[in-house]
Amino acid sequence: MKLVECVPNFSEGRNLEKIQTITKEIESTTEVILLDVDPGESTNRTVVTFIGSPEGVKDAAYKAIKKASEVIDMREHKGAHSRIGATDVCPFVPVSGVSMDDCVKLSHELAKMVASKLKIPVYLYEEAAQRPERRNLANIRTGEYEGLKEKLKDPEWNPDYGKAVFNPKAGATVIGAREFLIAYNINLNTKDRKIAHQIALNLREKGHVKRDRDGKIVRDKNGRSIQIPGKFKDVKAVGWHVKDYGIAQVSINFINYKISPPHIVFDSAIKEAEKLGVRVTGSELVGLIPKEALLMAGRYYLEKQGESPGVPEEELIKTAVLSLGLNDVAPFDPQKKIIEYQFRKKDDSLSNLKLREFANELSMNSPAPGGGSTAALFGALSASLSSMVSNLTFGKKGYERVQKKVKNLAVTAQVLKDEFLEAVDKDAIAFNKVMDAFKLPRKTEEQKKSRENAIEEASKHATLIPLKVLEKSIDALKIAKEVALKGNKNSLSDAGVAGLAAQTAAEGAYYNVMINLPDIQDNKFKTDIKRKATLLKKKALNLGREIKTFVENELGEK
After folding, report:
1. Does residue 44 come out as left (phi exceeding 0), alpha (psi in the -120 to 50 range) or beta?
2. Ordered DSSP codes for 264-308
């Protein structure tokens, strides 16, 4: 699933009617879910958080910026927070299935729309910045709204998009892309804020000033204090006392959790606390967290225990929550705290059905779910079996030489399993969209044309889903071959079934590609897809044959 987070900040925190007018634009956008609206009266600023598909998030952001430019007049705005426009800043954040480059591209597309359609000057910041000095938001905001008119006269501050023309009502907008910011607190068995702050100084990137034995600041020959950097890049931290909990905490902002993961910083905090005679009792997540951050933690702690990290997502998250002590001061509910879980449908997913329920649904007279979903399910079963064999090989005597290999195979197979399970639903949804397209009215020429276009697009999409399953089936076959050759010999039959299931997934997906092609008018698309599917099917059959031959020969010797 491709998910992007967007966190626009609007220069209005007091008039709830205006705020609701803006957020309704987001809520009305398809493929988008509004997660949080946080108005501040003293700052006169509202931070809004929403997630969705890349296109959905871009559309929602544009509509919200447009509405903000209509209901907010910067000439009347007063507030404690730095700001430059009605929509002060609007960052895109990659969550899952998208890269930072994808978010930078979204930034440019939105900036172009805002500048050309709304006549608002746009600056790009962070990862989308076109100049080094514009990466830092504070640099762009220098002078704020009040100094913007003069700033735009300086050629050095020409906007990245739009003309250098002052928009008195809307000001300017800063659009960009950044990593997900995780707000996280580490709990201590003390009330002493100074101890918590000392730990924070040692952990954070900025570090602390150097002091001599008497506690005086050490300075260089120019009189500047000497700074000792902390242990972790892209980490900001302070120590504070939380009256509600009756403890001190190390409060941390992770600017880039991929560079400095929370679990690594947490373990380092434990060591720092022990030096000062206190203990870490657990931790607290403030707001939401990307799923990958917890999966990384789960794998890390399982490996520390000597266990295989190639286990289901749910088990990894459970391990992470227990290891980080995330239930220490408040209950931690993954369904509410993991950002990706806010977007998924919990009730009507085919992959959430029990075995009998799925089989019953499949047996009914409705055409979906059908063969495409079943092919994807075979892929998931293949990957699951391969992971099982890998895990039964991990840590087993006599297989020391392949430990790293089978560990990686188990992790890869688990990811592949989840991708196949997503495809079970995607195939059924895609088929239903084709059926919906055929039901569109065709009384007028305009309706006929619209119907033809809808059928064409839906048919293409319904073809690409099983094609993706076919591609992933090759990956499943390769893993099945590896575990058959190198895995636990007592599980050879399981590896063989993994190969058979992956081959069935491939052939089933191929059938579903081919049955969709006749309804597509784009001949180049049809030719390209048919050629690609045929080559993939041939490759799948060859791999399947190799696995089957090896397994049957080995079993014949027993």
Report:
1. left
2. HHHHHHHHHHHHTT--EEEEEEES-B-HHHHHHHHHHHHHHTT--
CA distance 420 to 488: 25
Q: Which two tokens stand for residue 463?
A: 């073809």
Instruction: Give per-residue pLDDT as tens, 407-431.
Output: 999 999 999 999 999 999 999 999 9
Q: So what's the pLDDT on residue 347? A: 59
Judged by DSSP in three states, 154 sits in coil
Exposure on the CB side of residue 146, measured as CA atoms within 13 A:
6
* Residue 353 dihedral angles phi and psi, to the nearest 5°: -75, 150
What is the secondary structure of 451-487 as a DSSP string?
HHHHHHHHHHHHHHHHHHHHHHHHHHHHHHHHHHHHS
Residue 283 and residue 289: Cα distance in Å, rounded? 13
C-alpha 391: how far from chain center? 27
CA–CA gap between residue 352 and residue 349 (Å, rounded) = 5
Q: What is the pLDDT of residue 368?
A: 82
Cα–Cα distance measured from residue 42 to residue 29, given in angstroms and rounded to the nearest whole number = 30
Handedness of CA 547, 550, 554, 556 (dihedral sign): positive
Q: pLDDT confidence of 187, banded at 50, 70, 90?
A: very high
Q: Which tokens go with 558?
A: 């027993």
φ/ψ of 30, rounded to 5, equals -70, 155
CB 218 within 8 A of CB 210: yes
Give the distance from CA 49 to its chain's centroid: 14
Cα-flanking dihedrals φ and ψ of residue 131, to 5°?
Answer: -135, 145
Tokens standing for residue 514: 């081919």
478 in Cβ contact with 543 (< 8 Å): yes
Residue type present at position 254: F
pLDDT single digits (tens) 506-518:
999 999 999 999 9
| 65/57 Cα distance (integer angstroms) | 12
Strands 3-6 and 280-286: what pairing? unpaired
Model pTM score: 0.83
Q: H or E segment at 242?
A: strand 235-242
Residue 246 zone, left/alpha/beta (φ > 0; ψ -120 to 50; rest)? left
Angle at CA 90, nearest 5°, toward 89 and 93? 135
Helix (H) or strand (E) holding 65: helix 54-71
Averaged pLDDT of the chain: 93
**Does residue 500 contact residue 548 with C-beta atoms inside 8 Å?**
yes
- The full DSSP string for 486-543 is HS-GGGHHHHHHHHHHHHHHHHHHHHHHHHHGGG---HHHHHHHHHHHHHHHHHHHHH
Taking alpha carbons only, the member of 335, 371, 387, 340 closest to residue 498 is: 387
Cα separation, 56 vs 37, in Å, equals 18
Report the Cα 473 to chain-centroid distance in Å. Answer: 24
Mean pLDDT of the 394-403 span: 94
Tell which phi-psi region holds residue 315, choosing left (phi > 0), alpha (psi between -120 and 50) or beta: alpha
Positions annotated as catalytic residues are 81, 427
- Over range 162-171, report the average pLDDT: 96
Omega before residue 369 within 30° of 0, cis:
yes
